[in-house]
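Researcher: Let's run the pair from yesterday's discussion. Sequence first, then tokens, for each.
Model: Starting with the first of the pair.
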Amino acid sequence: MKNAPIRCIFIDDEPLALDVLKVHLSIYPQLSIVKCFSNAIDAIHWMKDNTVDAIFTDIQMPGISGLDLVKNQYPAPHAVVFTTAYPNYAPEAFEFEALDYLLKPISPERIKKTVARIEEFHCLKYSQAHDISLRPDFVYIKIDGQHQKIHYENIVYVEAFADYVKIWIGPEKRLVTLQTMQNMEKALPADLFIRIHRSFIVSINNVVSIQQNGVNIGNKILPIGKNYKESIVALVNKHRLQ
């Protein structure tokens, strides 16, 4: 149920790391720490007979890594938060729609943002399904029983959010709807939008610059997925001056 505690499990082969997570998250009454595991294999066996709302997992662990665990469960029915000392795994983690990526040592301020994202995910999971209706120049999104009209020119980018998508129409303003990124990619006009990552579709008109591994769009740098680099190169070649 929506108001029930958010059930979480922790997976890390370092006991101290598990203790730190417990301390950080125990102050949030909306979270319920159900179980802790020292390896991914035990967690996988336990999840066969139990359900959770969110898992916090390390990446580099003996046996099965945290990334392999998430890949085998993709698309996961729960939120996934990676906790690791290594920033280089982030692009791959977000390819599989990680809800967040925490670098150790984890600060209380950073945990607070993660908890907010988990709460948002949990709320959406149990909310009434939204729908979306696309038109030549605009899109209607049903939110709270109303169809909201959004012109394509106002969409900055679209972000995957587990089973939902966030349609960003400003630096801090976004609308969330129950929809797949695949459907969004097919429906949005190809001359106005381009898929740059499993988790991101961007408005071409809002692109400020294109870097080797990222797209600058307003005040954000969004990653370029390895499967989408060719389409980015084609976009650059199409519009560059000779």
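Model: Moving on to the second of the pair.
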Amino acid sequence: MSAEGNSAVGEHGVSKRAKAANRKPAEPVEPANSAKAAKAAKPVKPMKATEPVKAVKPAKATKPAKATKPAKPARPAKPESRLAMVRRARRINRELAEVFPYAHPELDFRNPFELLVATVLSAQTTDLRVNQTTPALFAKYPTPEDLAAAVPEEVEELIRPTGFFRAKTKSIMGLAAALRDDFGGEVPGRLEDLVKLPGVGRKTAFVVLGNAFGVPGITVDTHFMRLVRRWRWTESDDPVKIEAEVATIFPKSEWTMLSHRVIFHGRRICHARKPACGACPITHLCPSYGEGETDPEKAKKLLKYEMGGFPGQRLDPPPGYPGRPAPPLGASGG
């Protein structure tokens, strides 16, 4: 055997080629992603399909709430009856009599002539200014005869502080002459005679009749007119109609003092521009409460004359007046 043949035999006498020929070929490895691998892999059981969620039944539509009936509008307050108004008015008068037991005419006078002249002079000014002016006038002209014979310019100078002194001079000298010529120098005690005098109207006549002669009368001045309208005793703004309407509410015996009480209340508490409602003693009877200052402390500061601790309008007030007398013209506070 040639050398090349011996070299192909291994240690155990079997040639390498023979071994190689007898060896089984290795099974080919299939790639991991082959179909076989896919078959060998256990298929994942598909998840059971969850049952479809039952549709929630829509809530039953609630019945629409019954439409509430619109609230009935409040019935307007019934208009006050005539009887109720009369009772309320008379109660106001009684309560004012307790508040102002000292109510009086606020003009200084010693006789009917002085009261007549002072009342004519009080137009468009205060009683205080008249009271500060008349002492000098009556000192110089104490009687109708004296005043009728006066020099007009001298009278004008004396009454100048009251305003409208020329027109007022003509009136008081004219009425003085009429008293001298037609009534024997005396002031008549009848309404129909008084209203014939120059410068004398119903208001002035009732002041004189009620306070100098004791004849009942209703004095309808600006204060009286304002208050009786606020109290709904009348809706009129005519003095004569107001006088007639108020006269039907009260007995005749009350007319003069009623006038004083109402005027006192108007000057001291129920003012024209800013009533002191918070300090008013008859708010429970007043249908106009609230037109003025309702705060009690602020209202107290609005009070006038003796109600506010100040002098009254008279230099010579009657007995029983609780306030201080007014100062004479030219004095401190005059």
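Researcher: Give me one sentence on the second I can quote.
Model: Confidence is low (pLDDT under 50) at residues 1-41.
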